[in-house]
Structures are given as structure tokens and as C-alpha cells.
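Need Adenosylcobinamide kinase's 3D structure for a figure. Predict it.
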Amino acid sequence: MRVLVTGGVRSGKSFHAESLVLAASDVTYVAPGPTTEEDPDPDWAARVARHQERRPEHWSTLETRDVAAAIRDAEGAVIVDCLGTWLSTEIDELDGWDTVREDWEAVLMERLDEIVEALATTEQTVVLVTNEVGMGIVPEHRSGRIFRDLLGIVNQRVAAECDQVLLVVAGRAISL
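Structure prediction for Adenosylcobinamide kinase:
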């Protein structure tokens, strides 16, 4: 089973994604943003800690940007939370906010291809969380437009490999 859970910020998508694998005996929770060592931001550390507190003790947490390897190497169910964080961290690493998109986008797409391939070939349950973007106004700043456009591509590519796509609004999941 491969499921993409999308929705707005604070819509309940992480909680819903976690509920999909509660019965699994082995769960790896992949946090694909900066590790807490890389990003000393107390808000980021608090968010990671909040998520860890509500998970069962037998779940393991893996902080890594290598989502493809995490999926390939998993021996049980996997939750990736979230693809928006993965994308922004990748753009940071590629210096994409301050350089010409054409100079780094191919590398980003190769990394996305690896995730999609790992997702397509895994036999494990994988639940991926992402943000839904692009339903409002066009962002004023270049960085917002880049993020919106690329996350739309990421979401479409991942959704194509999933058995189910859920949209979470106000804590309620709607199957798409």
C-alpha cells in the first residue's frame, strides 16, 4: 500500500497518516528536513519533538534527506513527513533560492526520480505526507513561486505511484 496524504498546514494530515500504520509492528518515521543538528532553530526542534511524543515508542525516527534510500531500506512500514520539507531542504542544499532555476532543477528532478522509483518498487507500506499548494493567489516572491511550482510537480509524480491519495481538510480525509 502506498498512500499520499495531502492538505493544508495544520489540517491534520500527519495525524491521519500516522493512523494508517498504527497496526504495523515496525514503522520508520522519515523526517526529511534538516536534522536538528543542521538546523538549531528551536521551532523546528519543538515540531520534531511534538511529533515524536505522539508516536508509539516502538516507531523509529530517521532524519534524512535521502528519502529514496529510506524507502528502499525499510523493513516495515514507512511514513515520510513531509515532502514539502524535503523539497525546501533540497532547494536550500542546491542554493536554488538565489540561483537560476535551470542551473539546479535537473539535479532536483533526478532526486525526485529516485524517490518515485523507490516508491514504485517497494513492497512495504509507505505513507507520504505533503502540503497542498497553489489553490490561492500567485505568490509575490520568486521563492514562493518556485516552491509552489516544484511542490506541485513533486506531488503529481508521487501521487502517480500511489494506490490512494487523500486530501485532509479540518481533520477529515477525502479520497481523491
